[in-house]
Amino acid sequence: MFGYLLVGLGKYEKSETYFRNILRSKPNNEQVACLFYNMGLSYCLKRDYQRSFDSYERAYNMHLNTRPIRLVSAAKTLNGMGVVYSEQENYIKAIEYFELALKIYKKYLQHRHADIGGTLTNLGNVYLEQGKYDRAAEYFKKAQKLTNHTSQSSKYGIDIKQFGYNLFW
């Protein structure tokens, strides 16, 4: 999707305009849910956390109300909501959302899926921020083990040496 590309390029205002224009064209519910997810991502990257969370919440509810229910997409949205909480340093809520996403991913995705690795990495980052280094290392190792077997290992992979650097510097 072009709007997602704009987000990736850091062109948040243009992506939001693009998403709003698509919404005016009356897309189906699945497309609208994806738009709200991408808007949530854009707002999060702009540090507009309330609008980000609101967009993610709308996407999540739409994924659950679409037929058939889109649980994996809902899990991805939960992961985004966890990132919002993590960015706001609300680590307890972040962990709650990451664990919910992980539970759904493990039930509906292949064991070695990159999204599972990404969520494990997010959990590791939260524990690292809390100073719970052993717990962080546990999640980073799980993510590294998993992502070493996926085609997207560079996207979510964790370098244990980098973890050590972050820990001691």
From TrEMBL:
Matching InterPro entries: TPR-like_helical_dom_sf, TPR_rpt
SUPFAM superfamilies documented for this protein: TPR-like
Chain positions of TPR repeats: 33-66, 75-108, 117-150
Gene3D superfamilies named among the record's database cross-references: Tetratricopeptide repeat domain
Metal-binding in keyword set: no
UniProt keyword annotations, A-Z: TPR repeat
Superkingdom of origin organism: Eukaryota
Name assigned to this protein: Uncharacterized protein
Origin species: Didymodactylos carnosus
